[in-house]
Amino acid sequence: MLRRALPLLLVACASLLAACGGSDDAPPQVTFTVAGQTRTTGPTQWCDIKVTGCSGDPAAEVHLGVAPGVTVDVAVPEPVSTAPWQVVFSYRTADGQQVDGRSPVFAANARKDYSLVLPAPTDQLITAQVQQYGIPTADPDTGQGEFPIRGSWVLVTDA
User: Fold this and answer.
1) What is the per-residue burial (b if ≥16 Cβ within 10 Å, else e) of 19-51?
2) Cβ pair 91, 121 in contact under 8 A
3) For position 139, what pLDDT does the model report?
4) Following DSSP, what letter does each residue of 87-123 receive, concatenated?
5) Other C-beta atoms within 10 Å of 131: how many?
6) Can you give the pLDDT at residue 49?
7) How confident is the model at residue 25 (pLDDT cuts 50, 70, 90)?
8) 79, 89, 85, 54: which is closest to 147 by C-alpha?
């Protein structure tokens, strides 16, 4: 009985990993759009689904001019949206204070886009980063859940 169930279990696990963006052939591309200008880029960090083998490409970050108060539209492809993801960002207020923020974490398959709007029209975006989560793990010492970042796509503003 176990011999017959094992192949089915392996197929089910493989399907689950594929559904979570498990393909490591070509890292997915993310698109940032600002005032009609679009830049598509690969990840600056990309890991296997278990986040055990990673590679980095700092040159993959994209640069766009973003005027204060302008919306940044982010579009992610299916390989990113099939796992939880979010946008983290930094901006400077009118009085020069740097503030870090983040979008909600979007559940797997919940959405493929996000519009980043800063709190005040005078706020100046510095950087925005799409982060895709890998498979959650537990810290062996504390038992606390850890949510590793599998992939990261970066926009740096030219402001």
Assistant:
1) ebbbeeeebbbbbbbbeeeeeebbbbbbbbbeb
2) no
3) 85
4) EEEEEE-TTS-EEEEE-PPBPTTS-SEEEE--SSTT-
5) 22
6) 86
7) low
8) 85
